[in-house]
Design a protein that fits this description.
By secondary structure, the protein is of the alpha+beta class. About 35% of the residues lie in helices and about 30% in strands. It has 4 helices and 5 strands, in the order ααααβββββ. Strands 1, 2, 3, 4 and 5 form a 5-stranded antiparallel β-sheet that branches.
């Protein structure tokens, strides 16, 4: 019986060690940072990060005035985002990751950047899921900067 107790204690200690290692690794993940804005993928990354950080003033600066339904002011943009946050990728309690692909398709003053989105859903102990999707962002060059024209 003593051997079984040691074996069980060993399993518990190993599981606890794995939990601690996973926790430390999760805490060591670097915070997302803004990138250089002179590239289409950098602009899209910065727009999405500004939205995620709820820095709506910065996110609004990445929008082209040619955008359909362009909000004329930061306040109008903020109202749009807050009235339907899920349309802007601001999930409620479901965590999501966004990965901007770094190879935009450019032709002259226009570009298309693809973004991979993965949403993790937790519906209980055994019913967890992951949903993946892809969307594209169309941009145009305005001087040295890129601006968002459309997201679909």
């Amino acid at each position: 019986m003593l051997k079984n107790d040691r074996f069980l204690v060993g399993i518990v200690v190993a599981v606890l060690a794995l939990v601690v290692v996973a926790f430390v690794l999760a805490l060591r993940q670097p915070e997302p940072e803004f990138r250089a804005e002179g590239t289409p993928d950098g602009t899209v990354h910065n727009y999405l990060l500004a939205l995620r950080n709820r820095d709506f003033a910065r996110a609004w600066t990445y929008l082209s005035p040619s955008l359909a339904g362009y909000p004329a002011t930061v306040e109008a943009f903020t109202d749009d985002v807050m009235s339907d946050p899920s349309s802007f990728g601001l999930q409620g309690t479901e965590p999501a990751t966004l990965r901007v692909r770094s190879a935009p398709v450019e032709s002259g003053d226009s570009a298309v950047v693809t973004v991979d989105e993965t949403t993790f859903v937790d519906n209980g102990l055994v019913d967890t899921g992951e949903y993946s999707g892809v969307f594209t962002v169309h941009l145009k060059r305005d001087g040295d900067m890129w601006q968002l024209l459309d997201i679909n």
